[in-house]
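Thread: Newbie trying to understand structure tokens

Hi all, I'm a second-year student working on a class project, and my supervisor (Dr. K.) asked me to get a predicted structure for one chain before our next meeting. I've only ever worked with sequences, so writing a 3D structure as a token string is new to me. If someone could post the tokens and maybe explain what I'm looking at, I'd be very grateful. Here's the chain:
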Amino acid sequence: MASVEGAALIWTRPEPGSRRPKFTRDQIASTALTIADTEGFAAVSMRRVASELGAGTMTLYYYVRTKDELVALMDDAIMAEVLIPGDEFPAHWYDALTAVALSTWDVLMRHPWALHSLQNAPHGPNAMRHFEQSLAAIADTGLDAPEKFALLGLVDDYVRGNVLRSAEMGVAPDDKEFEAAERFVESQFATGQFPHTQALFAGEDRQEVFHRLVGDTSERDRFRHGLSVLLAGVATTMNLDLPDR
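---
Reply by user tm_fold:
Sure, no problem. This is what the structure looks like when written as tokens:
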């Protein structure tokens, strides 16, 4: 992969000038995201994006010089989806931080591959706007800079961790893998070293027990509940006020 400096240059260069450019960076990024969403990030290439746009590969290089720059555009397009319109931004820190976290979760759930595949992408304008919006959410809390940074990191860790867990749970094993896993679990239960786990399932079908424990709550509602618990704990620990309900 090229240097971060080289990839970041795309933000300092104007788009190719002409009265009616055939393509825009937004269009190129959108096409790349669609490919990644439907076929996986590995399917994204300059040649493939050019093909989807109905252009030659060399034509695409006129707009985007390298694959790293394409990745940078993809990352910035995702961050654009995260941003909350200014007139919809809540005033209270709790509500504002909740809105930012929910928006981030929604976007990453639409593009879960991005957590791994775009983690080294250089930050673009929309990533900076997202960070600015996150700081704006807690601007009136009275926290000092290290406390603000710690709070945003705590929420970000929860958001990203929840998305990763959800993505992992969404990948169902095939029948042979499932049967092998069941046999392994039974063999471990037989050792007597897992009494609490064994009691949790009490000899019932483990999938049925799991679904009963989770209930009918949607993943988004479970995420939001966990976020509310997290922020309530933050309010207590950092002496912040909670909104009146």
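A couple of things are worth pointing out once you decode it. Residues 145-169 form the longest helix (25 residues). The CA atoms of residues 234 and 240 lie 8 Å apart. Feel free to ask follow-ups in this thread.
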